[in-house]
Amino acid sequence: MQDVSPVSDDKAQKAAFESNKLAKRLRHHVGDAINDFNMIEEGDRIMVCLSGGKDSYALLDILLGLQKSAPIDFSIVAVNLDQKQPGFPEDVLPGYLESIGVEYRIVEEDTYSIVKRVVPEGKTTCALCSRLRRGILYRVATELGATKIALGHHRDDILQTLFLNMFYGGKLKAMPPKLVSDDGRHVVIRPLAYCREKDIERYAQMRAFPIIPCNLCGSQPNLQRQVVKEMINDWDRRFPGRVETMFRALRNVVPSHLADTALYDFATIAPGVVPEAGGDTAFDKEEFRDPVAPADDVEAPRRTISILDSRPKAPECQ
Ligand code: SF4
Q1: CA 186 to ligand 1 center in whole angstroms
Q2: At what angle do helices 155-169 and 223-238 cross, to 10 degrees?
Q3: How far apart are CA 29 and CA 269, in angstroms?
Q4: Could you tell me if the CB of 126 is within 6 A of ligand 1?
Q5: Which of 152, 178, 153, 189 lies closest to 50, judged by CA?
Q6: Would you say residue 35 has pLDDT above 50?
Q7: Whose CA is nearest to atom 5 of ligand 1?
Q8: How far is the CA of 219 from the centre of ligand 1 (A)?
Q9: Binding site listing
Q10: Interstrand relation of 103-108 and 148-150 (parallel, antiparallel or unpaired)
Q11: What's the order of all strands across the beta sheet hosting 75-82?
Q12: What is the pLDDT of residues 104-118, one digit of tens each?
């Protein structure tokens, strides 16, 4: 029998409140990223790449929500690439996409066989697999007349990439929220750039997305990324606010206080030149803010039209 006691009622109310708060937070993070990087403009046709994982489902869901209320018009087409991995449940995505009534295209290309044939046994298959997938998705974007390609990478992916590049690549380089594709013909956007993975995980559970497992190809997860992920998660547990601070650092770069001679003209530094704002002062004590304090000074300027604004109401007929 169903429990309808005041206690369970209370619990249900609290859960609904928390879910609502989470949905609002994600919507705001996505809206802010779109605004800050001018990701979506009037008339855009956004191709949302849908893998069947939690991130891409959340991306599509939130963009569809914003599309309904945004003060600009843009269209969305969801695209899934069926790479013919053994056991891929072909009906799941079409069923879901039909049920929400979004325009979609399922592209079938057997990259799985190519990868298995070309890559020697025991070697990692991801590099070739991603290259093939990228090429196909760019081609499909052109066929569909998409002006932007939206990917489901989030803030944790961006930070992990930063550390991977530092630890193993010797580069200070993360994953940009917006970029030109490597064939130079498309603009790629990452509207989840400000969203935390744990929020997306909870959102995916709350919305009951029909998740497709991501290990169908049989490839081992990238061990280095796994190590970096655990390192960041460990910091997050022990030092609340550190992840937020690290992400803020990506938006607050001082080239004169790094050591890249291609980025800053150190050779011409001479007395009399105005010191760089935000840089160190050579001999003074270092001062760092409380990591959990809000960072008012790094807010990006807001655009006049925000995707989070409501669509203006049509004038009423007299
Ligand atoms: S995990 Fe599998 S599907 Fe994903 S990129 Fe690697 S090989 Fe391709």
Answers
A1: 23
A2: 120
A3: 39
A4: yes
A5: 152
A6: yes
A7: 126
A8: 6
A9: 126, 129, 217
A10: unpaired
A11: 103-108, 75-82, 45-49, 148-150, 187-189, 178-180
A12: 999 999 999 999 999
Q: Atom 3 of ligand 1 has which residue's CA nearest to it?
A: 217
Kindly list the structural domains of the chain, giving each domain's residue range(s) and its CATH number in brackets, ordered by start: 12-269+291-298 (3.40.50.620)
Binding positions for [4Fe-4S] cluster are 126, 129, 217
d(CA 104, CA 212): 17
What pLDDT score was predicted for residue 127? 86
Report pLDDT digits (tens) over 149-171.
Answer: 999 999 999 999 999 999 999 99
Residue 20 in contact with ligand 1 by CB distance below 6 A = no
Query: Ligand 1: which residue has its CA nearest to atom 7?
Result: 126
**How far apart are the CA of 135 and the centre of ligand 1, in A?**
15
pLDDT 10s digits, 176-205: 999 999 889 999 999 999 999 999 999 999
pTM beyond 0.70:
yes
**Distance between CA atoms of residues 101 and 141, nearest Å:** 20
Q: Which burial class, exposed, middle or buried, applies to 279 when counting CB atoms under 10 A from its CB (0-12, 13-18, 19+)?
A: exposed
Tell me how long the chain is: 318
Dist. CA 51 → ligand 1 center (Å)? 11
